[in-house]
Amino acid sequence: MLYAPAILLGRVVRILARWRKPGGGSAVPGLVVNRVAPGFLPRTLNSFPGGLIIVTGSSGKSTTTKMLVAALRAHGTDVFTNQSTANISQGLTSALLERVNLNGRIAADMAVLEMDEGHGALISGSLAPRVVALTNVMVDQIDRFHDSDMVAAMLAKIAARATGTVVVNADDGYLADLAAGLGAGVSVARYGVSAEVLAANPRGLGYSATAHDRLPAESGMLLTHIDGRNATIAIAGQDYPVGLPSRGTHYAVDALTALATARAALGDRFDPRVAAEAISTIPPVFGRGEIVTVRGQQVEFVLVQNPASFQLNVDSLEPGTEQILIAIGSDVRDPSYFWPVNTSVLGRVLIASGSKAPDIALQLAYDDVIVERVEPDLGQALDDFLALPKPAAGLKTIIFSADSMRRTRAHLGLASNKEGQE
Known about the structure:
Elements: H1 4-20, H2 28-36, H3 40-45, E1 52-56, H4 61-74, E2 79-81, H5 89-97, E3 110-114, H6 117-123, E4 131-134, H7 148-159, E5 165-169, H8 173-180, E6 187-193, H9 195-199, E7 221-227, E8 230-235, E9 238-243, H10 249-266, H11 272-279, E10 288-294, E11 297-303, H12 307-315, E12 324-327, E13 348-349, E14 351-353, H13 357-366, E15 370-371, E16 374-375, H14 378-387, E17 396-400, H15 402-412
Helix pairs in contact: 1-2, 2-5, 4-10, 4-11, 6-7, 7-8, 10-11
C-alpha cells in the first residue's frame, strides 16, 4: 500500500485534467505521481510475473509494439501495454494509473511498452526488462538528439539492463556494434532484410549494413518479399505470409521486429503461424497510414517524423494519388532537417500548410514538385482541401508532422491519441 496515496492523487488529477481539457492532459497525472512517488513507475513495471518487454529505437516503435502485443495475446498471454503510444515517463505512469490497483500491481502476465529513447535511458537504471527490442538508429529529433551516436548510446544504456534477450535489427550498423558489446549473460536475437528487398528500395531503408548473408538459416528471421500491404517473412527457413496495416517496406520491417521479439518473449511457446496471422489483423496505428472518414470523404493520414520515415512514406504512396496536402508544423524546428528527402515522386501537391508551410513548399519546388498553393493557416487549408470534389484517383492524402497531426485531428474533431506530450 506504499503507493496508494500517490495512485489516488493521480486519479483525482486525471479526472480534473480531463474535465479541464477533454481529450487531452493525459500526461499530467503521470507528472504528478512521478514527482510525489518517484519509485512508483519502476516498481510497477518490474512487477509483472512474465517480465517487462521494452520496444525502443528511432522509428517504428508504435507499430512494432501494437503488432507484438497482438502476437502475444494470440498465444493466450495477458498483456499490459501503453496503447495510447504514450512513451515518455509521465505518459507511461499515466497509462499505468488506468489499470493499477492500490497495491501498485496490474493483473497481467507481462508488460510490453513502447519507450522513448531519451526517457528510457533516464529511467533504465531502475528497470530490469526481460526483453529489449531495438528497432533502428536514425537521424531523428535533432533538437533533442543531436547525432546518431547519442541515440545509440541511449539505446545501449537501455539494452544493458536486459536480463534475458536483446532483439536487434542486424541491418543497422549501430545496433550491430551495440549487440557485440553486450555482456555474456544476455542473449542476442537478430533479424534482417534480404538482398532482394533492399534492392527493391533504391533510396534505402536508412541501414548501414546488410544481414542477409550473416543470419543462420536454421534460426534467423528474414524479410524476403514485400508487395504493397503483403509481406513474406522467413522464420528458420520457412516462409510465412504477413498482412501489413499500411503500404511500405518499413511496416514489413516493423512486423519482422515484432515476430522476432515475440519469439524471444515466448520461447518454446512461440508459434510463427499464430503470430503472423495475429499481426495481419491489426489496423494502422494512429496517423501511420490511417484511413479515416471525414465530412463524408475517405482521407489517408501519413505521419512523417524523420527524414527516413518521410522518404519511405512518400515512396510508398499509392501511384496516381492526385490530391495531396502537406502540413509541417512547429515540431520541425529546423526545416533543413527534411532536405535529404527526395520528394520528386509526388509530382504535384495541392496545398503546403502548417507553420513551416513556406519551407516545405520551397523544398518541394527544388524537387520539381508543383505546389499549387501555400496556406500557413492549417484550419483553412484543411477546410479548402476537404471541400474539393472526390479525387478521380487515390484517396485524399494528408502528409503531416506530429504537431500538424495533432492540430489536424483537433480541427476535424477526431479523437486524440493522448501521446503524453501535452
